[in-house]
TrEMBL record:
Belongs to the glycosyl hydrolase 9 (cellulase E) family. Its EC number is 3.2.1.4. The chain crosses the membrane at residues 557-577. It comes from Kwoniella europaea PYCC6329. Keywords: Carbohydrate metabolism, Cellulose degradation, Glycosidase, Hydrolase, Membrane, Polysaccharide degradation, Signal, Transmembrane, Transmembrane helix. This is Endoglucanase.
Length: 592
């Protein structure tokens, strides 16, 4: 029991963290029909709305006491919830965000999300300022980081999940009756989670930079200040950095290293990451940038070499950091050129550009075995895109946009920009369905996101039609997306296509901020005619709604083999029955 007391007393030492920026003016999402109006304003109203809505989505995912933030609760249909979280460990683990359309709180996809938001804001903070969304960015980040601080009550302890997946999957309803108990799951030195520790360290490190606007991170000579001066808060910045360092130290010194899933098992299988090496290297690199300390850079470089991370063709998502690592190494070579020369390991822009461009070019050239473009033009990764197709495509678009200005030639710059634009436009309506995959942005946006609180439904057996109309508009949420045939069924029970999640949305604010900084004209959806989306006929046939009565792959293979043998048997019969005719026909053909 003594460790519980230690944890509890540590939690009392955490400073009360409430000060935040106050939004001025306040922002409320406009109704979807506003998406039909072309904007000639600077900044572009439509891109400002995409940015504003995509952050509003994170407000709708909040758990805990909703008035604790600086600007209170913007989402009038949400209530305080899960106020006992952490009690099983004598801790306050209230707050944070629900991960998706349900009610578990999962640390791993949260840290991926915070990392992506912070990294984007570090270089494109000006977009948030233009759209007057910096206060909401601050609100979203703090709601995440403040919870992550609670979830990291001592050096080696990090809570990786709150709420049981099994219990949660059996519940479909509002936020007032969320089933309890909601157990908390920690990793610690006896049950290590190298991936979870590292990913949290990476998110904390970039967060600490964001709250230190005087820190330099200039990718190009014309860079604007990296982030909004209004975010400056050295107290908060140091607090985030101290958590980054301590998590990294534990990740680096604990052996054997292990994923949190290997340590904790099925209870945390919702986000079972497949390895820790990529997360470890990303965290070392993030700390190298945040601290300008060469020992972190050395760890990153040595890890990259010894774990053989070169030339890998992985997606960027909560489970894989690979392409983000390539881009970040290139950025370090530009922004921290003096790092670690004393060991002959000077940052090497030529080498890192080669690594990054080999990766991007394999996507552009179609040499990336697992990826291709759908007929409608969406970048699709077999496997990774099957249960949420838009997320990996938006992640690559974000990486290409940020890398394009520092590419090795103008030609590559143009290619990466063009490809990224194509992906973004697909998501925003330039697709065979005329669907705009952001909820509430346009009349053709999805009407039925798979979200228990937004749906207003309580009948888990009739999620699709009960109630017939979704109770609340979940503004700013990007849904899972279409299948590889570009078709999209807007069905609430089809979680493959219509679920929403923290990590799905992680790139959208940055993509919008990039367009604002660039003063781009309207997003594609402005030219999409209302009413041109309709639900396709037939069945989707995906993991949520499998066809053929929900047969497993094994059963399907069995049937296929049976059919092949059956056909062979029939052919053999025909052959025997007609053997004389066939022999005559054969001889004739042979003679000719
Ligand atoms: C800076 O952040 C700390 C920690 O969240 C907070 O207590 C403090 O009030 C903030 N200062 C300002 C000026 O916002
Ligand atoms: C929030 O509480 C109100 C009042 O009880 C209820 O009508 C509403 O459905 C709740 N919201 C959710 C998301 O459950
Ligand atoms: C360490 O983690 C394991 C697995 O989650 C847990 O059972 C145990 O209680 C934890 N130990 C401490 C001291 O928190
Ligand atoms: C980075 O850009 C800022 C703003 O343009 C400038 O003040 C600063 O000197 C630059 N730093 C470096 C290292 O180039
Ligand atoms: C990480 O661990 C290695 C091996 O123990 C050590 O050499 C290195 O200094 C550590 N890195 C940091 C930043 O402490
Ligand atoms: C460029 O990268 C590729 C793939 O990572 C690698 O095989 C090749 O050796 C690299 N070439 C140079 C000149 O660095
Ligand atoms: C990082 O450290 C190097 C070596 O001490 C120094 O030359 C460089 O100016 C530092 N860069 C930043 C951004 O602090
Ligand atoms: C620079 O990168 C290239 C290509 O990856 C590599 O061949 C070379 O050894 C690197 N140089 C240093 C000093 O790391
Ligand atoms: C910014 O503008 C340039 C020039 O028009 C374009 O090529 C590039 O794709 C734009 N960048 C982004 C992030 O949209």
């Amino acid at each position: 029991m003594s460790h519980l007391l230690i944890l509890f007393s540590l939690s009392l030492c955490i400073p009360s963290i409430t000060a935040q920026l106050t939004p001025s003016p306040t922002y409320t999402p406009p109704t979807a029909s506003a998406g039909l109006a072309s904007s000639t304003a600077t900044p572009n109203t439509q891109w400002s709305n995409i940015l504003g809505n995509s952050l509003y989505f994170y407000d709708a995912q909040r758990s805990g006491r909703l008035n604790e933030g600086a600007y209170g609760n913007r989402v009038e249909w949400r209530n305080d919830s899960a106020l006992q979280d952490g009690e099983d460990y004598g801790l306050d683990l209230t707050g944070g965000f629900y991960d998706a359309g349900d009610y578990i709180k999962a640390t791993f996809p949260l840290t991926f999300t915070l990392f992506a938001l912070a990294w984007g804001a570090l270089t494109h903070g000006e977009g948030y300022d233009q759209a007057q969304q910096t206060a909401y960015l601050d609100g979203t980040l703090r709601w995440g980081y403040d919870w992550l601080i609670k979830a990291h009550p001592s050096d080696d302890v990090l809570f990786v999940q709150v709420g049981s997946g099994d219990v949660d999957n059996a519940y479909w309803g509002g936020d007032e009756n969320i089933p309890t108990p909601r157990p908390a799951y920690p990793v610690n030195s006896s049950s290590p989670g190298t991936d979870a520790w590292s990913s949290a360290a990476a998110a904390f490190a970039l967060g600490s930079m964001l709250y230190t606007p005087s820190i330099s991170y200039n990718l190009t000579s014309s860079s604007s200040p990296p982030t909004s001066p209004s975010l400056e808060n050295s107290t908060y910045s140091s607090l985030l950095l101290s958590h980054a360092r301590s998590l990294y130290d534990v990740a680096n010194s604990t052996s054997p290293k292990s994923t949190y899933y290997e340590s904790l098992g099925e209870e945390v299988s919702a986000y079972a990451s497949s390895n820790w090496q990529d997360d470890y290297v990303l965290s070392a690199l993030s700390l190298a940038i945040a601290t300008n300390q060469s020992d972190y850079y050395l760890d990153a470089y040595n890890g990259y070499v010894s774990y053989a991370l070169s030339g890998l063709k992985e997606v960027w998502n909560w489970d894989s950091a690979i392409p983000a690592i390539y881009v970040m190494f290139s950025e370090v070579a530009i922004t921290r050129p003096g790092l670690a020369p004393e060991v002959g390991l000077d940052t090497n822009l030529t080498g890192w550009r080669n690594e990054t461009e080999a990766y991007f070019d394999s996507i552009l050239d179609g040499n990336f075995k697992r990826s291709y473009l759908t007929k409608g033009g969406l970048l699709y990764f077999d496997g990774d895109s099957d249960e949420a197709s838009l997320n990996p495509a938006m992640a690559i678009a974000m990486l290409m946009f940020r890398y394009a200005p520092i590419a090795s030639s103008q030609e590559k710059t143009d290619q990466y920009n063009a490809f990224a634009h194509g992906q973004l436009e697909y998501m925003l309506g330039n697709n065979p369905m005329n669907a705009v995959y952001l909820v509430g942005s346009h009349p053709n946006s999805p009407q039925n996101p798979h979200s228990a609180p937004a749906s207003g439904g309580t009948d888990i057996l009739h999620i699709r039609n009960s109630p017939p109309t979704e109770a609340h508009v979940l503004y700013g949420a990007m849904v899972g997306g279409p299948l590889d045939n570009d078709r999209f069924w807007d069905w609430r029970d089809d979680w493959v296509q219509t679920e929403i999640a923290l990590d799905y949305n992680a790139m959208i604010p940055t993509l919008a901020a990039m367009q604002l900084v660039n003063q781009t004209s309207d997003p594609y959806y402005v030219q999409v005619q209302a009413g041109t989306y309709s639900i396709p006929s037939g069945q989707p046939c995906d993991a949520a709604l499998p066809c053929g009565g929900g047969l497993s792959k094994g059963a399907k293979a069995g049937i296929a083999i049976g059919v092949i043998f059956g056909v062979l048997f029939i052919l053999a019969g025909i052959f025997y029955w007609k053997r004389k005719q066939i022999a005559r026909w054969w001889r004739k053909g042979y003679r000719r």
